[in-house]
Amino acid sequence: MNEPLYEITRDPISVEKVIQKVIRNEAGAITTFIGTVREWTNGKRTLFLEYEAYEKMAVKMLDKIGQEIKEKWPNVKCAITHRIGRLEISDIAVVIAISTPHRKDAYEANQYAIERIKEIVPIWKKEYSEDGEIWVGNQLETVSYPLGKPALEELDD
Amino acid sequence: MIKVLFFAHLKDLVGTSELSLEVENITAKELKQILEQKYSITFENYIMIAVNEEYAHSDVKIQNGDTVALIPPVSGG
Prior knowledge:
The complex is a heterodimer of chains A (157) and B (77). With 157 residues, chain A is an alpha+beta fold. Chain A is 32% helix and 35% strand. Helix content of chain B is 25%, strand content 32%. Chain B has one domain: Ubiquitin-like (UB roll) (Roll), CATH 3.10.20.30. Chain B has 2 helices and 7 strands; from the N terminus they run βαββαββββ. The chains are: A alpha+beta (157), B alpha+beta (77). Chains A and B meet through β4, α2, α3, β8 and α4 of A and α1 and β5 of B.
């Protein structure tokens, strides 16, 4: 039952298993975020995605996000699993489960977690579309660039 | 000896995911420059550096035995 709270996996994610990790007596609320593979983005059709991670660092950064959440919200428990490898449309890419005594904190902390994942966790997706394949975030002047960088002050932590 | 890791489009660009380098007393920024010359490429300033799985400033000293990763903007989630 002592499974890690922060995981990178190549296998399909069980939402229930992630939720189980944060269930506890003090909790009165559990929020889950489930990120899935979207078929259409701005009129462009995605066929499938290939996720790659710097696994060792990704787990460290997920853990760091968990620590940040503990500092910001009282009595919170957080579990995150991100899948890598080839994912088809509607496959689950990431599951975040947060438990807190009251619902407001669980919602807020969960949103914080996904935003931070998109900023600091070294995971990249390659998008295969009808036009070919492209690493998301590798084109100049896309919105993903500034978001991909942690803020400088965070580097001093 | 240090280990250098490349990911996503950088891996495609340099043609390998990992290499070993014999360097001494250099900063992360200087390592970037060495790699740029070696592969005739330019790392844009949005490429981050991680030393031993932690984000690092460009003036951090790289030590023998370190693992240095070049981190393109992330796109997980």
